[in-house]
Amino acid sequence: MRTVLLFIALRHLRKRWRTTLLTVGGVLLGVFAMSFMASLMLGLRSKFMDSITTSAPHVEVTGKPLWSPSRLFAASPFEQDNALPTFIRPLRPPPSRPEKRLKTYRQLVRLIESMDGVVAAAPQVRGKALLVYGSLTRTVNLWGIAPDAQERVISVRQYLRDAIGDLAQVPNGCYLGKEFLRRTGIPVGAKVTLIGPNGTQIRCRVLARYWSGVRETDELTCIVRLTTAQTLLNFGDEATSIAVRVGDVYRAFDIARTLERLTGYQARSWQEANANYFALFNLQDLITALILTATLVVAAFGIANGLITTVLQKQRDIGILKALGLTARDIAILFVLEGTLTGVIGALLAVPLAAKAIDAMSRVPVVGEGLMTLETFVMLRHPAIYWLPVTIGIVVSAIAAFFPARMAARYDPVEIVRSAAQ
Q1: What is each CA distance from 47 to 316, 338, 359, 377, in whole angstroms?
Q2: DSSP 8-class letter at 81
Q3: Residue 118, SS3 per DSSP
Q4: HSE (side-chain half, CA atoms, 13 Å) at 115
Q5: How many whole angstroms separate alpha carbon 22 and alpha carbon 18?
Q6: How confident is the model at residue 40 (pLDDT cuts 50, 70, 90)?
Q7: How many whole angstroms separate alpha carbon 163 and alpha carbon 167?
Q8: Which residue from 237, 164, 214 is spatially nearest to 373, judged by alpha carbons?
């Protein structure tokens, strides 16, 4: 019986081939659009997440205390390097003007690295400074690092271009962001003067271009040694934060909360630091989903309309089929099968078309500037971006055929034959 129903369904589709082509085209367009837009949106999001998690710390412990660190523990781990807290309890509210620096960052680094899930930790100093090169004066975001420790947290060296030296060997060196050098025209190897807020000046040689792929970072960043930044900002032996690398980047938020309880200082995960960008991505996903849903709904109405027309045109055939022994259930299955076959054909034809379009789009150069520095569009090629839209397209097609199938199943063969005789 299933073979017979399939034969009749294919015959109906072939008989009204113009309507079939239109409905197949509607499903094809919907599935193609879903695959293509998913590849584009998820590719950009994946690129952004990769850029953030490889060029920025997974968790950053700042110098802002949540409560008084001096009274946090009965036996303070900051004073006794080998002592770990047995309980954590805030004893008084935060001070009205909290201190922004970490005076005991060395002990904190050892404490943080002993925590489960943490791979490495490194102190860093951040602040503003003036960069002077000839008659050019620009404000830069100063980033002081301990080169060897920083490599275990964020690999700075992998983002260097045209390097002529290393901060680990050149005390008064600096790395400048690729976009900053492009805008100002400062060449690698040039000597620049860095001026701190208190007027402290240090002469530095530009050792390399720093290109992380995150435009906000590449535009204003000036990377120097930790001691150089401390001197420029008049910090003494203090740090502004501790960069932390974790084993599982998706556990960064939970680890940040544990670090807050452990150290008494504010900790921020990479998800929190980039919450605004992810909110924008979520809004884009919502808008895209609404547009693609509308496309599939239009395709579903096309399928339903085509099948209703077929039911009305094939009333006599339906009556004959019922008279020959087909039940109402068989008739319903017949028309659901027609709608499903339409969806299957359209969805499967969309896959190679989407694959070619995604491949072509990945080669299109990106013109202009944005959040990330991109040379071409980043397109995701995961199998799910193909089979999930295909599944949705087939399911929508089957659902669209449900109402026409019920209408056909309710026809009384006696009434149909009697009407035809009249």
Answers
A1: 59, 41, 17, 10
A2: T
A3: strand
A4: 25
A5: 6
A6: confident
A7: 11
A8: 214
- Ramachandran bin of 281, using left for φ above 0, alpha for ψ from -120 to 50, beta for the remaining angles: alpha
Q: Any bridge partners for residue 242, and if so which? A: 61, 123
Q: Is the pLDDT of residue 383 over 60?
A: yes
Lowest mean pLDDT among 80-84, 202-206, 214-218: 80-84
pTM of the model: 0.66
What are the C-alpha distances in Å from 187 to residues 71, 191, 213? 50, 9, 20
Residue of higher predicted confidence among 218 and 324: 218
Average pLDDT, the chain: 79
pLDDT of the residue at 328: 73
- Using CA atoms, how far residue 275 sits from 28, 249, 252, 337, in Å, is 36, 15, 13, 46
Q: Which helix (H) or strand (E) holds 161?
A: strand 160-161
pLDDT digits (tens, 9 = 90+) for 161-180: 888 988 988 888 999 988 88
Three-state secondary structure call for residue 201: strand
CB-based contact 120:149 (threshold 8 Å): yes
Across the range 92-108, mean pLDDT stands at 63
Instruction: Give pLDDT, residue 303.
Output: 72
Considering Cα of 277, then 239, then 59, then 272, what sign does the dihedral take? negative
DSSP code for 159: G
What region, left, alpha or beta, does residue 83 occupy, with left being phi > 0 and alpha being psi -120 to 50 degrees? beta
| Polymer length in residues for the chain | 422
Residue 217, amino acid: T
Q: Where does the pLDDT of residue 319 fall: very low under 50, low under 70, confident under 90, or very high at 90 and above?
A: low
Q: What is the DSSP letter of 123?
A: E
DSSP at 173 = E
> 385 phi and psi, to 5 degrees?
-70, -10
Angle at the Cα of 154 (from 373 to 106), degrees rounded to 5? Answer: 145
Closest CA to 140 of 233, 13, 58, 11: 233
CA distance 377 to 373: 11
Instruction: Quickly state the pLDDT bin for 57 (edges 50, 70, 90).
Output: confident
Give the H/E segment covering residue 139. Answer: strand 136-145
